[in-house]
Amino acid sequence: MESSRQRIIDTALDAFSRYGYKKVEMSDLAEQVGLSRQGLYRHFSSKEALFHAVVEHVHDTTLALAAAAAQKAAADGPVAVLGALISERFGWFLDRVYGTPHGADLVSESSRQCKSLNAAASQRFAALLHETVAAQVRSGHLELRRAGLDAAGLAELLLRAAYGLKSPDPVPLSAAEFRARLHQLIGLLCASLIPQRSHAPRTRRSR
């Protein structure tokens, strides 16, 4: 059963996305979740504290989804694994936050109020991506040395590419477009890094 705290966070995320951070009142949120204003403040001492919890929820959700998606794609090769990991981290955000009427406002407000939280989440994802790349190298699915790369270097390239695709300049991409372009880009980056294994059947020598 969903906790009262989580219901408040989900309702606040929807409200902030629909109306913008500044227009959302705590009294309106309390009414939507069936609490008194005092009851709401027992969970969150201020609108700023609630917004901080919303941002933390977004980060925790996308990181968990990314890890689960990469694990699910494990049997499908490095392009699928890396694509799943990165697209879930950013795709959910594009769907639920940036793709909403006040997404840009929320991003700006998050940068103002939650710098340390955002930085910590970015570091967590960078570490997860690095470890995922390293695991693909250890398992023999990627060969980086001939390209002059190591796991950290490839992880950085992939992360910078993802941030570039996510940027609204020159034209913002929808979540679906982002995922499609990301998989194309990862395929191009990894094409020369995947060891070529011959699957051709052996032919018998004629006597």
Furnish the topology, listing elements before pairings.
Blueprint: H1 4-19, H2 26-32, H3 37-43, H4 47-72, H5 78-98, H6 103-113, H7 115-138, H8 151-166, H9 175-190
Helix pairs in contact: 1-4, 4-5, 4-7, 5-7, 5-9, 7-8, 8-9
What can you tell me about this protein's structure?
The radius of gyration is 21 Å and the shape is elongated. It has a domain at 54-190: Tetracycline Repressor, domain 2 (Orthogonal Bundle), CATH 1.10.357. Helix 5 packs antiparallel against helix 7 (115-138) and helix 7 crosses helix 8 (151-166). The protein has 207 residues and is an all-alpha fold. It is built from nine helices and no strands. The relative contact order is 0.11.
Number of strands: 0
Query: Which strand-content bin applies to the residues?
Result: under 5%
User: What is the CATH third-level topology name of one domain?
Assistant: Tetracycline Repressor, domain 2
Which secondary-structure class do the elements indicate?
mainly alpha
Task: Give the helix proportion (percent range).
Answer: 55-70%
Mean pLDDT: 91
Radius of gyration: 21 Å
**How far apart are the termini?**
73 Å
Order of helices and strands: HHHHHHHHH
Helix count from the secondary structure assignment: 9
What's the architecture of one domain, going by CATH?
Orthogonal Bundle
What is the overall shape?
A: elongated
Are there runs of 5+ residues with pLDDT below 50, and where?
198-202
Largest sheet: number of strands, sense, barrel closure? none
CATH hierarchy class name of one domain:
Mainly Alpha
